Amino acid sequence: MESNTNPGHTSTEKDRGNNSPRSMLMLASSMLIFGTIGVFRRHIPLSSSLLSFIRGAIGSLFLLIFLRAGGRKISHSLPRRIMALLIVSGAMIGINWILLFEAYNYTTVATATLCYYMEPTIVVLLSPVFFKEKLTVKKLICAAAAFIGMVLVSGAAGEGLPQGDALLGILFGLSAAVLYAGVVILNKMIRNVDPYEKTILQLSSASICLLPYLLATGQFTHLELTPSAAVPVLIVGLVHTGIAYTLYFGSTDGLRAQTIAVMSYLDPVSALLFSAFLLREPISAAAIPGALLILGAALISEWN
User: Fold this and answer.
1) What pTM was computed for the model?
2) Burial class (CB in 10 A: 0-12, 13-18, 19+), 103
3) How many other β-carbons are positioned within 10 Å of the β-carbon of residue 45?
4) Domain limits of the chain?
5) Is the dihedral of CA 152, 157, 158, 163 positive or negative?
């Protein structure tokens, strides 16, 4: 869900579309792209904050060019409340990326991804506070299952809590999940805004809000990238952000809400597979049922 990464659950709120093969291919492609971002992060010698800044800048510029090429314009008359929510959520996205990229640095891509995928459960638990939604028995059971899955993934049920870098990676991943849950909640408050326009404003806000910190810490001063290092940076900006978001938003009108919800799980599942087969990262025996509990609980809680 890097989605990021991943624009998330904003398009699953209503049933629409007829599940056209073209739309399903576009959505599947975007999810598989999101699922590879952890692999590319491993080959980028930049700080997480600098990479997040570059990602937001390139992604927002790509989407802006895409809209202009299609003859569409960005509205300059959004209400102040909506603009404020977009800026705040954009800043949260930037910090969320930093935390997720740090999680990739300190633990396996699989563990970081599963920690990050606690986000749907966090949203479910916070919905009664922000949206006065009732916590049903099904949602409570799903939340409990996700928590048990997290215990299994962390290793706390076997050898006890992990130590050192492994623990730090888990904390970064869970912190990213909390922050992204906040973004999802704010997105539910932002209505009647074109999804492309909303994403452009959020991605650009993410970069702009990170800029003062980067300048204060002098991270641009000694920025040097070899061609081999620059390529994955450009891929994260262009492919994992610009192209993936374009595919995602371009697919949702042709798909039913439930289809989008189910296919979105290609992202974490593919991330686990890429972690195992491309990075050769080990997956413990306890982590497998833990992954099933986390992803299954998130999926079932969304299923109407």
Assistant:
1) 0.88
2) buried
3) 12
4) 20-70+79-302
5) positive
